Amino acid sequence: MWAAKRWNDYQVLDTSGGEKLEQWGAYRLIRPDPQVIWNTKRSAEWDRINAHYHRSHKGGGEWEFFDLPEEWVISYPLQLQPSADDAEGSTGQGASGCRELHFGLKPFSFKHTGLFPEQAVNWDWFAPIIARAHAENPDRGIRVLNLFAYTGAATISAAAAGARVTHVDASRGMVSWARENAAISGLSDAPIRWLVDDCTKFVEREIRRGNTYDAVILDPPSYGRGPKGEIWKMEDSIYGFLLLIRELLSEDPLFVLLNSYTTGLQPAVLSYLLHESLDPAHKAAVEADEIGLPVASSGLILPCGASGRWIAVR
Question: CA 97, CA 303: separation in Å to the nearest integer?
């Protein structure tokens, strides 16, 4: 499993009874987690919290606040050079060359805070690839497309490494939030295109325009609807979407990253998808694994979805 081990401002403290106790900077939250099917004894730490998201048996849920600001900021030391542990598919502590990123957080509907901290293991994977390519050819202008881009953590990670990024999300509010994250990370002037658009329609237009990208990051939802009611279901839509992505890759691509939180899509499925959809166009290596977060109380890793990585052979 690829675990996000380099956080200073975030930690899963404990897990029990369908919930996880998390430290987000100075604040402590309890949120539901469907992977936590054990019911271990809870320590007194669970009583010292700032907010608790209660899931409803009817679907959805609501926050209970005790002492939590409307917004706050946490930081992450983005790794710009590969660590000694990279050969094993994990990110270690001995990285040289880091860039401090900052993320604005706020609790909003359906338990989210605006950040998926487990994705840090992927930021630390692709940022050195971009930084190295940029250093080898500063005039090339590494072009990265971030689709279903949410609040922009992957966007600002790529931009911090030296990429020119196109950030696409169907939610205007999420794109605004992403721009704020770029600003507080000192990347207001970075070459980032911020677009509110349906990802499929945008990709189809880019193909017609003849535009290409050196790297593509995809974090699609399990289920969603486009601005005109278009239905996206991961299992039904992702293969055809990857075939479109193949047409967007440049002649000398770097990578494609595919994330999945869809139950039933195991890492081997992501690997197979990337092999079958992208390999005919470019020679590449493919790897896939679960991603997760260390749990302080047990020393174990909490699984948080899966990622597939298509890496061009250079």
Answer: 28
What beta strand segments (E) does the chain contain?
2-3, 10-16, 19-24, 27-32, 51-55, 61-65, 72-79, 98-105, 143-147, 164-169, 192-196, 215-218, 223-225, 231-233, 255-260, 284-294, 301-312
Measured CA to CA, the distance from residue 189 to residue 228 in angstroms comes to 33
The β-bridge partners of 216 are 145, 256
Encoded tokens for 204: 């189809």
CA distance 37 to 145: 36
The token duo for 91 is 């990110």
Phi, psi of 83 (to 5 degrees): -90, 170
Query: Regarding beta strands 223-225 and 231-233, do their DSSP bridges make them parallel or antiparallel, or are they unpaired?
Result: antiparallel
State the pTM of this model: 0.92
Residues 19 and 46 sit within 8 Å (Cβ to Cβ): no
Q: Along the chain (314 residues), what's the average pLDDT of each consecutive run of 10 residues?
A: 98 98 98 95 96 88 95 97 55 59 93 96 98 92 97 98 96 96 98 96 97 96 71 83 96 96 87 90 90 97 96 86
- Gyration radius of the chain's alpha carbons: 19
